[in-house]
Amino acid sequence: MRRSRSYDKVLRRLEAAGSLIPPGQIYHVSYGSRDNLQVINVYDSQQSLDAFGKTLLPALAEMGITAQPEVQEVYKIMTS
User: What is the bridge-based pairing of β-strands 38-43 and 25-31?
Assistant: First the structure.
């Protein structure tokens, strides 16, 4: 299955759970080829990320997706 289809299915599951845009999420972007999608999320705190993980990780596991998160501290966000 193409990763983009899996990604879309996970989004539908998150939406059904009321967590498509979870509290504390500042920014979400998916990028890359449809066979190798990558995702970047920016949260307002580690606590918000941890809370969302309780919903996200089971949804990913159901799709057979193993997340390999890399958590980094944000240095600067610039918007227009």
Answer: antiparallel
Amino acid at 22: P
**Element (DSSP H or E) covering residue 34:** none
Dist. CA 15–CA 69, nearest whole Å: 21
- Domain membership flag for residue 75: no
Q: At 42, give phi and psi (nearest 5°).
A: -120, 130
What is the total count of domains within the chain? Answer: 1
Q: Is residue 19 part of a domain?
A: yes
Question: Each residue of 20-50: pLDDT tens digit?
Answer: 999 999 999 999 998 888 999 999 999 999 9
The residue segments making up the domain with residue 56 are 3-62
Report which DSSP code applies to 21.
S
